[in-house]
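Supplementary Text 2. Reproducibility record for the structural model of the 211-residue chain.

All settings were left at their defaults, and a single model was retained for analysis rather than an ensemble. We include the record here because the model underlies the residue-level annotations in Supplementary Table 4.
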Amino acid sequence: MDRTALAALSNRLGGMQDTVQPVRVVDGDDMTALAVVSFDWPRTWNVSGGKFSATLHCTDPRRYSFQSHEWYLSGSYDVGSGFDYSSPEGVDYPISYGDDGVTASNSATLTNEGNSVAYPTFTTIGDFPGGFRLQAADGSILEWSDRVSSAAPVMIDTFNHRCMILGTEYSTPLSRREWFTVPKFGSLGVSLVPLQLSTGMMRVIMHDTYM
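Retained model, structure tokens:
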């Protein structure tokens, strides 16, 4: 490794000082842990070489599968076909005016193979003009009662009980906060329901969680 590469590595490691970082642990299982990273640099250390030490302090006792699970939920309104009188045979009775505007939601079953409860993360894709509702099979609901645009996706973090938009915490429009988790060695059904006409989708990411 040349001096330029060493300097770049030094700057990168310095930027990680005292921050929480994912650490991959391969000891028979392929896992990820979250650790606060700190470095000890000898006074004589420089980018031309030398040794340093790194300390990892895991404040979160859980370990997570390195490979995540991923699901996509979609929701739309079906406004029906309306009154069609174009048939050459004329109008058939009884007259059907089509569906009266019902919500079509997409559901997924989130499965956790770990021995500790898991916390899914939800991120919007596309537009939700009237907001959306995430409803779990146990009856719990997370409801966002404000407009969502594709340019500013909403990320819902069920572990930290917060919402993020473009890296900034903003949870005010979350009008229902019945936080849900996926049980150990278990599963949970979740449905996406848009609150107005929408073509938006929801990306769900979760890791098997272990203690």
